């Protein structure tokens, strides 16, 4: 079994947990509040902005010309997506590159961003790529899951987790090529390095669940501060 196959196999429980999360179910049923949707929208666009640095690192540390070309293509898609997203945002939300940089980052978003950014210092595609590819894979799989659900036919729920860009799918799609790169890099790596790459992939899958959870419960730094100052010892999330 290749390293990417191990990653996908061991990530199945995380995928199932994401499918069952109340936020994802709320997308299907159209039961999420405007506050929950706004929290997710604001935090997600800031997260997508953070991913630009991760993709740039992949470009910098790519080991073949084909890798670098693929990562450049993915970066262009990311920047175009962010540009179009910002144009759609209301005035109260980030609406240009400058305001996006100053979007308040809530706890789980920051943890996830730092988890991904920490891999950059390895200067290794094998360690950086799984932190990023996990979210791509999970969203694709959630999109497939939602296709088989009876979901509300109204916006913004109708378009949620509906992958319109076909560049991600199929044998030549981004995610398949990412897994192929992971397997190619794993052939040159030690067992320890392979296990660390897999652990990073699985942690990203776990943090995706917590991202939904934070959006569903609207978890902010104020909640964490209140819990600390009142001596709350139970989990916030």
UniProtKB/TrEMBL annotation:
A GO term, aspect molecular function = thiaminase activity
A single GO cellular-component term on record: cytosol
UniProt keyword terms in alphabetical order = Thiamine biosynthesis
Q: Write down a Pfam family by its short name.
A: TENA_THI-4
Give the EC number(s) listed in the UniProt record. Answer: 3.5.99.2
Name all Thiaminase-2/PQQC domain ranges. 20-217
Q: What InterPro entries does the entry give?
A: Haem_Oase-like_multi-hlx, Thiaminase-2/PQQC, Thiamine_Salvage_TenA
* Reactions catalysed, as given in the entry: thiamine + H2O = 5-(2-hydroxyethyl)-4-methylthiazole + 4-amino-5-hydroxymethyl-2-methylpyrimidine + H(+); 4-amino-5-aminomethyl-2-methylpyrimidine + H2O = 4-amino-5-hydroxymethyl-2-methylpyrimidine + NH4(+)
Q: Does the keyword Aminoacyl-tRNA synthetase apply?
A: no
Acyltransferase among keywords: no
Q: Which pathway does it take part in?
A: Cofactor biosynthesis; thiamine diphosphate biosynthesis
Lineage: superkingdom: Bacteria
Write out the GO biological process terms: thiamine biosynthetic process; thiamine diphosphate biosynthetic process
The annotated subunit structure for this chain is:
Homotetramer.
Identify this protein by name: Aminopyrimidine aminohydrolase
This protein's species is: Lentilactobacillus diolivorans DSM 14421
């Amino acid at each position: 079994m290749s390293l990417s196959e191990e990653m996908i196999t061991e990530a199945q429980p995380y995928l199932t947990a994401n499918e069952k999360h109340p936020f994802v179910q709320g997308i299907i049923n159209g039961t999420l509040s405007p506050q929950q949707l706004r929290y997710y929208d604001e935090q997600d666009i800031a997260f997508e902005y953070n991913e630009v640095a991760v993709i740039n690192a992949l470009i910098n540390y790519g080991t073949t010309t084909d890798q670098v070309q693929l990562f450049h293509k993915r970066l262009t898609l990311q920047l175009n997506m962010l540009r179009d997203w910002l144009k759609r945002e209301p005035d109260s939300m980030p609406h240009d590159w400058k305001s996006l940089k100053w979007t308040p980052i809530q706890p789980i978003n920051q943890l996830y961003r730092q988890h991904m950014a920490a891999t950059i210092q390895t200067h290794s595609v094998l360690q950086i790529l799984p932190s990023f590819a996990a979210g791509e894979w999970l969203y694709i799989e959630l999109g497939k899951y939602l296709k088989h659900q009876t979901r509300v036919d109204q916006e913004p729920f109708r378009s949620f987790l509906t992958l319109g860009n076909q560049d991600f799918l199929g044998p030549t799609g981004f995610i398949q090529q990412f897994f192929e790169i992971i397997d190619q890099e794993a052939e040159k790596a030690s067992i320890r390095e392979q296990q660390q790459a897999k652990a990073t992939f699985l942690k990203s899958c776990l943090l995706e669940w917590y991202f939904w959870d934070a959006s569903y419960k609207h978890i902010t730094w104020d909640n964490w501060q209140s819990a600390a100052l009142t001596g709350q010892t139970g989990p916030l999330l």
